[in-house]
Design goal:
single chain; 5 helices
Length: 166
């Protein structure tokens, strides 16, 4: 199905973009360490910016982990199941995940709107904006929600048709 391929592509692309953010975060932290310990001149912004990048990276990476089937699960029983059995287990768990993601989206959306309207900043000397990171929360929930829907459709197809949906 074309829609499922589009959802996969969006989450895969998001993961690739996020991997670049890790490089920037590493460069920022390296810069901070060199200035702090090499020149005894720490920055006011490096730690805070790297925390913001890591926050965005952490929440936005959920859809990427889902599309690659890399989320943590208890493999004691799951690993021993057939593909169809795994699909049935996933379909049983998906309603809970849907409800959780919808809750996170709704709460995150309200929080992001409030933070953006207030132009919320941190309480440190640097006073970096918080709202870009808070916008990532509902966006991440939406990406995971769409990816979960795509996985649910694929699993339902596997259970009913006994073949994988590409």
């Amino acid at each position: 199905m074309r829609l499922l391929a589009i959802i996969d592509a969006i989450n895969l692309r998001t993961g690739k973009v996020l991997s670049v953010l890790v490089v920037f975060m590493t460069l920022i932290l390296t810069y901070e360490v060199v200035l702090r310990y090499g020149f005894d001149s720490p920055t006011k912004w490096a730690h805070e910016i790297s925390c913001s990048i890591f926050g965005a990276y952490s929440v936005l990476g959920g859809g990427y982990a889902l599309v690659l089937n890399q989320h943590i699960r208890s493999d004691v029983i799951y690993a021993r199941l057939s593909d169809r059995g795994k699909a049935i287990c996933d379909l049983i768990a998906f309603p809970l995940l849907f409800m959780l993601l919808i809750f996170i989206f709704r709460q995150g959306f309200d929080m992001a709107v409030s933070s953006t309207l207030a132009r919320e900043t941190t309480v440190t000397m640097f006073r970096s904006p918080l709202y870009p990171v808070k916008i990532c929360i509902p966006l991440a929930a939406l990406l995971m929600l769409f990816q979960t829907l795509a996985l649910a459709i694929r699993n339902l197809w596997l259970v009913v048709r006994k073949e994988e949906l590409k």
